[in-house]
Amino acid sequence: MDMVAFNMQGFFQTLYGEDAPGYLAIWTHTPKETHWVAASDPAEMERIALDIGRERDVYFGIGLHMEKLEKGRRGASSEVIAIPDLWADLDVKGEAYKANNLPPTCKDAMHITKAIPLKPTLLVHSGHGVQAWWLFKELWVFENETEREEAQELSRRFQATLKHKAKEHGWHMDGTHDISRVLRPPGTYNHKREPVEVRVLRYNEDARYNPSDFEPYLVEIPDDAEHEVDFGGNDHDPEGAKALLDVLKPQLSFRILKAIEGGPDAFEPRPGGDGSPSGADASVCEALVEAGLTDTQIRDIFRTFPIGTNGKYAREGKRGDEYLALTIKNQRNWAAGNRKKVIIVDISDQKAADLLPEEVGQLLSDVEPEQVEWLWESWLALYKLALFDGDPGLGKSVMLLDLAARVSAGVGFPDGCPCEPAGVVLLSAEDGLADTIRPRLDAAGADTSRIVALVTVKGEDGYERSISIPEDIPLIEQAAERVGAKLIVVDPFMAFLSGDANSHRDQDVRRALAPLARMAERLGAAVVVIRHLNKGTHPNPLYRGGGSIGIIGAARMAFLVAKDPQDEERRVLATTKNNLAKPPASLLFRVEEADNGAARVTWLGKSEASAKDLLATPHDQEQADARSEAMEFLNDILSDRPVPAEDVLREAEDAGISESTLRRAKKHLGVMAYRKSKPGESRGKGRWLWKLPIVGLRDVQDGHVDQDENFDHLEHNKGLEARENRIGKSTVQDDHHDLQDDQGVQGIQGDQDSQRLEARRLEHNDALEDVRELFARDFIEESG
Amino acid sequence: MKATTVLLELFKKEREWRRFFRSCCESRPLRLRSQAWQFRDELADRGHNTPIVYVEDALLSLARDLLPESAATQWDTEWAHDLCKDALSRLAKHYAGLSAEEKDALDLSDQDDLSDQDLWDERMVAARLDNDPAAFRAALKGWERAGLEAIERARVKGGAA
User: Fold this and answer.
1) For residues A480 and A482, what is the distance between their CA atoms, to the nearest angstrom?
2) How far apart are CA A509 and CA A488, in angstroms?
3) What's the CA dihedral at A58, A59, A65, A69 to 10 degrees?
4) B128 touches chain A (CB under 8 A)
5) Across A593-601, average pLDDT
């Protein structure tokens, strides 16, 4: 690849060769003007482009045309007779393009071209982005209409492949696949902001291709990946459009309505926005797309109201539909690409600018107050979702079955709260219906005729399959209706989560829980989901449930079942979250064997223990977190002196601590790793030692030291720098002497450094803890 | 100030940035890295000019600390592969620039030449096991540098010969 100083003539000659047929368009939009030049005359192309492009943006049409067209026309793809290449126009974020989802630099933009493992022949800096050109071995002159369509399709698929790659990076790439597309020629200036020269960056003479060379790398993009505008004929329904706008008025901002009804002249762009007729059309289309209108409905609005009748849509005449289709398409693609993203820059200001004051928020005087209805006062609200957390084997399920039995039989709740008899739906994935659930319910005095179990359902293939949430919510509703259920238990939630859902992904969890919560509202029932705790040691119960924190975020009430710190045989049911009432006092219970041999619950009154107390107490060694155990082990083994890494690993293995857990603990403790070699031994030899950070370097009495920079992530760059400097030294022996000479100083310095680092590490951990809390709070607030 | 520290400060103050960070983390490591420039620009606006690679590393490290179960904490093999490929190609380019004598002088079995690279290689493996992208990048940088120095020594030796 060579750096080149291409002039424009050389550029055109490289693209089209010496004897290209037809004509090429040199175009400028201020004013709109096309100059048609013989494609075999690159010198003339350059002359005209330079002549008209001194103070204006100039473009050239990539596809050649059979004959010169009118001065106002750029030509259409259906008239193109030849193309020299495939291309991509990659915009880069900056002053010219404020979009949130563009590559940050030209270099980043080049990642998009890697979708095709064929090097571009030419790279052109377009002023605010890059054009990449993959030149054919020879100009592709179409022999017939079919070949022209093939070229158009190849160009479309080629760019779709690049767009797909861009999307992987979270970036947007403009579609420029139309073979009549115009782009800026090098040698001119991009006047979008301050004039920037358009120039050839690279030219790779050997990179020439046949059109078929690209085929193996093109991906098939699903039809819905990019919106194609379809007006579905030419019908126009002005009355329908007027009625539609009446319906839409409450959804549209005053600014947009003013533009629709007053035309482009009445359009007030946002600060810094595009106030041109095209800008007005784009803003209106954006709002109408957001409002959910179809392409035809949007066109009807443009055909009926001044935004179109007095605007560019009407002025474009026969090409009005084409123009509008492009505008709608851009808005739909933009919406598809950006709606899911966080717009960091002044999104709230933009929204505020769109709204009238009376459109913001809901006056509480318009809200009908409602009383919370309880199944179990302060514990389980009807119409709501509740969550029960706890480690496996602690009796969550048997306790929930006790509650189910109480509801079914209309027996009061454990704290004496009364209960009307009602139906119960049980979704249980872990216990057998016949050998576990039924005996437990019998032992708890349930009216089993009011309880329906739902575990599997017959699939379309005739085989039983597990119930899946949210897909099978209609089935759960039917089961609930069958017994008039006021309590629905999902035990455990993860077992019923849809197979393609990720329980650690908030969006997936919410997608499953939101319909469950709506089901609770429809049925007027309390929906209880059970979840197992994770292995962490976080003292805040909100973080301890398995899977996404969105689970607890979606629940209105959440409870924890844990061992009583005072008596391991007893269990405590404590509140971790209650959005609807003052958290009730924790309750004690014990799991016992009933006369029928099944497990049953005996309630023992109130407990003082809160959920935090319960989680802060490690009940036994098995329950202690694996990492804490590993940290304890490291503290112990490294307390006196540095220990060879292989010894630590071996001892850890003997102690049943996995290597990955050990390494996590090492990082958490800030354990330092360094290599210790004997005098005269070359660098890279010797044994790796581990030591606790508070042990100073003076402990290293012989041999040179390679200190591991990643003992503290904050310090890794410093460590690397030090290490790299050492590598630059001429001999290993020198290193050794340096250390020997400075040993006394380094010993003291090492201690001070260690203390300083320790202090910084603690400070960093505190900051992390604060931010963790904030993340948790966000989750909860966002989920309602 | 370290990128991690200033990012934590940003997250403490700005909910929007926390949400953005979380949404990136929930997607995949590539998403978090490809959006690092937004964080870099924001930090720059706040007076902290931090190179993009440090911001990337800090974001990935914070993902591990703050949202340890999110998708962004998965080890990104493709990323590591690309980094290694780039480093190898740079070394290859330098190697190609050696004369025949210099290439002869670069004895790849020479332990002295390779010992530094071995050291960094070990660290790369350790970083991978620790799922620590920053340490991996640093180790790879050291590995490449050691390789370049070996080539440079060969150039001197070959030239002298």
Assistant:
1) 5
2) 18
3) -40
4) no
5) 88
Averaged pLDDT, A178-204: 84
**Residue A747 corresponds to which tokens in the numbers above?**
């010993």
ipTM for this model? 0.81
**Alpha helices by DSSP H, B46-132:** 52-66, 77-96, 100-105, 111-129
Q: Which helix (H) or strand (E) holds A286?
A: helix A277-290
- The reply to whether omega before A269 is within 30° of 0 (cis) is no
**A40, A24 Cβ separation under 8 angstroms:** no
Contact A202, A2 (CB under 8 A): yes
Do the bridges between strand A557-564 and strand A374-376 make them parallel or antiparallel, or are there none, so unpaired? unpaired
* Residues listed for chain A: 784
* Interface residue A713 vs chain B (CB under 8 A): yes
The string of pLDDT tens digits covering residues A661-691 is 787 778 777 777 776 766 666 555 667 788 7
Which of B14, B16, B35 to substitute to test the interface with A, most A CBs within 10 Å? B35
Q: What is the mean pLDDT of each run of 10 residues along chain B (161 residues)?
A: 89 90 87 86 88 90 90 88 88 84 65 59 85 89 84 67 38
User: Distances from the Cα of A699 to the Cαs of A16, A667, A686, in angstroms?
Assistant: 74, 21, 16
- Which residues 6+ apart lie within 8 Å of A759 measured at CB? none
> Which pair of structure tokens corresponds to residue A494?
């993860």
Please give the span between the terminal C-alpha atoms of chain B, in angstroms, as a whole number.
49
Q: How far is CA B55 from the centre of its chain?
A: 12
Q: In 3D, which of A554, A514, A172 has the Cα closest to residue A334?
A: A172
Cβ burial, residue B28 (10 Å; 0-12/13-18/19+):
middle
Handedness of CA A332, A333, A337, A343 (dihedral sign): negative
Query: How many CB atoms are closer than 10 A to CB A409?
Result: 18
Helix axes A254-262, A347-354, angle to 10 degrees: 50
For A235-271, what is each residue's pLDDT tens digit? 788 888 888 888 777 677 777 888 898 888 888 776 5
Amino acid at A758: E
Among A120-124, A503-507, A691-695, A740-744, which is the least confidently predicted range?
A740-744
How far is A170 from A341, CA to CA, in rounded Å? 9
Coil, strand or helix: which one is A26?
strand
**Residue B148 touches chain A, beta carbons under 8 Å:** no
Mean pLDDT of chain A: 76
Pairing label, strands A196-197, A199-203: unpaired
Q: What is the average pLDDT across A448-462? A: 81
CB pairs under 8 A between A and B: 122
Among A660, A713, A764, the residue with its CB nearest the CB of B134 is A713
- Cα distance between residue A306 and residue B74, in whole Å: 54
Q: Look up residue A226 and give its two tokens.
A: 């990019």
Note whether A693 and A707 are within 8 A (CB): no
Distance CA A254, CA A268 (A): 10
Amino acid at position A388, single letter = F
pLDDT for the residue A270: 67
Cβ-Cβ contacts under 8 Å, A351 against chain B: none
Distance from CA of A505 to the nearest CA of B (A): 6
φ, ψ at A39 (rounded to 5°): -65, -15
B106: tokens are 């670069």
Cα nearest neighbour of B145 on chain A = A724
Say which range, A141-155, A459-473, A725-739, B80-94, has the weakest mean pLDDT: A725-739
d(CA A633, CA A655): 9
CA distance from start to end of chain A: 57
B152 and chain A: CB distance < 8 Å anywhere?
no
Residue with tokens 């001194």: A54
> How far apart, in whole angstroms, are the C-alpha atoms of residue A629 and residue A635?
10
Are the beta carbons of A778 and B67 separated by less than 8 Å?
no
Q: With beta carbons under 8 A apart, name residues in chain A contacting B73.
A: none
Residue A417 pairs with which residues in a beta bridge?
Answer: none
